[in-house]
Structure formats: C-alpha cells, structure tokens
Amino acid sequence: MPQILELIREDHDLIRGLFDELESNPETRDVRCITLRRELPGHMYAEEATLYTHLRDRVPGEIRQSLDEHTGVKETLTRFEKIPLRDDAWMPALVDLRERVEAHFASEEGEVFALAEEHLDRGDLFALSERFEREKVAAARYVTV
Ligand SMILES: [Fe+2]
Ligand SMILES: [Fe+2]
C-alpha cells in the first residue's frame, strides 16, 4: 500500500474529478452528489483519525487551522445538501463548496504534507495508510442516503 500522503492526494484528485463532473454534466448529478456526500466527509474523518492525530502534538497551531477548515467544509456541505438539484441556488452553492474544499486541499498538500514529512518518518507514513483506509470504510457506514 502507498504511504498515507499518496492516499490523501488520490482522494483529493477523486473529489476534484467529482466537482468537475458535477459542474459539467447535469445527467449524472444525482449519483455524483451521493458519491460526494460519502467521499468528502469520509476523507476528512479518516484524516482526523490518522494524520491529524499524529501531528497534533507536534504542530498544534497548523492542525487547529486544518480542523477549522474541516468544520467550514462540513458546514458548507450541509447547506449545499439541502438545496434541490433543480434550484437556481444549486450551482452557486456548488461553486462555493468547491472553492472552500480546493483551498483546504491546497493548504493540506502544501503546508500539512511538508510538516508530515518533517515530523513523521517513512515507517509512520506507511503504517498510517492502512489505518486511513480502514477509517474511511468505517465512516462510510454512517452515511445515510
Ligand atoms: Fe483535510
Ligand atoms: Fe484532505
């Protein structure tokens, strides 16, 4: 299995792809919304249970900032989910959610990844990847559609 930072980046790319499709293809929106509602919270939950937990004592300020970003994304996702697909407010809400998510991914792939490489050794990064996948599976069980 790849190390955890690679798994996180793969998830980010998958979610970016979902946003591309949601913006451009009205036909698949209902299905892609269900996928987004599963993948995005599951991804964040798994990060919090693994990478963030391991970095929290070493770089508390940065992890507090990342957790605040997660809270912002979750709140924006909750607002977005309440808007019907055919409502005029749907696309602006999608764009708003995407901007927030992309900004968070960028800070994670920049600062948080650099801190992880500085403070965790290769063994930690590989060991955390298995736990990351398990936490995502566990989180998916709690998502209702
Ligand atoms: Fe995150
Ligand atoms: Fe992430």
TrEMBL record:
<dbReference type="InterPro" id="IPR012312">
    <property type="entry name" value="Hemerythrin-like"/>
</dbReference>
<feature type="domain" description="Hemerythrin-like">
    <location>
        <begin position="4"/>
        <end position="116"/>
    </location>
</feature>
<protein>
    <submittedName>
        <fullName>Hemerythrin domain-containing protein</fullName>
    </submittedName>
</protein>
<dbReference type="Pfam" id="PF01814">
    <property type="entry name" value="Hemerythrin"/>
</dbReference>
